[in-house]
Amino acid sequence: MSRSESLAAYLRTQARRRLDRVETRDDGRNAKCALALLDAAAYASGLPDDDPLLTLLDQAGCFGPLGCDDFDPGEVGYRLIRGWQGEPHALLLALPAAIAATA
Questions:
Q1: Which of 3, 17, 91, 95 has the smallest count of CB within 10 Å of its CB?
Q2: 25 within 8 A of 75, measured Cβ to Cβ
Q3: Residues 6 or more apart in contact with residue 93 via CB below 8 angstroms
Q4: Which domain, by its residues, includes 13?
Q5: Which pLDDT tens digits describe the chain residue by residue (103 residues)?
Q6: SS3 (DSSP) at 49
Q7: Which residues, other chains included, contact 83 with Cβ-Cβ below 8 Å and sequence gap of 6+?
Q8: Dihedral of the alpha carbons of 58, 93, 20, 31, in degrees to the nearest 10
């Protein structure tokens, strides 16, 4: 599986979790987040593996120490992703910065 495919699969999984989440009075927050994550997954799946955004994620350790593991943003990245409602490109830029800020 390529890095872009691994990232897209992770984002789709998180989107499904948001869709399955039932909360009273969430004002559509879960649905908005799920749509943003599905949008980000579609965006990520179209990136070539040498894309600078994927390189930044790799340098942040999101693909393991050797850069060949499945995408895993760690706890900090997970917290950012689980509530994301912005643009796909912005998410992929925000992840390495958030991870680096806690290192």
A1: 17
A2: no
A3: 53, 56
A4: 3-102
A5: 899 999 999 999 999 999 887 777 878 888 899 999 999 999 999 999 899 999 999 999 999 888 789 999 999 999 999 999 999 999 999 999 999 888 6
A6: coil
A7: 33
A8: -160
Q: How many residues does the chain have?
A: 103
- d(C-alpha 63, C-alpha 9), whole Å: 13
Token representation of residue 84:
């994301």
Phi, psi angles (nearest 5°) of residue 48:
-70, 155
Tokens of residue 90, six digits: 């912005």
Nearest 5°: phi and psi at 98?
-65, -40
Number of domains in the chain: 1
- Matching residue, tokens 């992770």: 10
pTM: 0.92
How many Cβ atoms from other residues are within 10 Å of residue 2's Cβ?
12
> Three-state DSSP class for 97?
helix
